[in-house]
């Protein structure tokens, strides 16, 4: 399945718009990862633990969106947008939300 953030795929015109598709994933942050991230923030550098969580959340949300598109008979999703947010008490969980337009090209 072709997934693109653009509204058009060069050389492959949209034959049919099938509707909006989404994927949402909420991933929890845990105490040990938070402590590690705090130390990383203090000394500088990247927080690999959080990056792995965000990557997993993004991949799962994209997969969920693609499966919704397949169920509509799409072979591509265009105009894809990925958003991140913090939810839960004290921001204890991260939300990854993906939206796009399911199409047949």
CATH topology: Translation Initiation Factor IF3
**What structural class results from the helix and strand content?**
alpha+beta
Largest sheet features: 4 strands, mixed
CATH superfamily: Hypothetical protein apc22750. Chain B
Strand residue percentage: 35-45%
Query: Helical region count?
Result: 2
Q: Supply the CATH architecture.
A: 2-Layer Sandwich
Radius of gyration over C-alpha positions, nearest whole angstrom: 17 Å
Helix content: 25-40%
CATH domain class:
Alpha Beta
Based on CA inertia axes, which overall geometry fits? elongated
Provide mean pLDDT, rounded.
Answer: 85
Low-pLDDT runs of 5+ residues are none
| Series of secondary-structure elements, N-terminal to C-terminal | EEHHEE
For the record, give the distance between the C-alpha atoms at the N and C termini, rounded to a whole number.
11 Å
Please count the beta strands (DSSP E, at least 2 residues each). Answer: 4
Strands in their spatial order, largest beta sheet: 1-3-4-2
Number of domains: 1
Could you explain the architecture of this structure?
By secondary structure, the chain is an alpha+beta fold. The protein has a 4-stranded mixed sheet. It has a single domain, classed as Translation Initiation Factor IF3, CATH 3.30.110. The chain starts with a strand and ends with a strand. The protein has helices spanning 31-43, 48-71; strands at residues 2-3, 16-28, 76-87, 93-104. It contains 2 helices and 4 strands, in the order E-E-H-H-E-E. The mean pLDDT is 85. The chain is elongated and about 45 Å long. The longest helix has 24 residues, at 48-71. Pfam families: YbjQ_1. This is UPF0145 protein LPB140_11830.
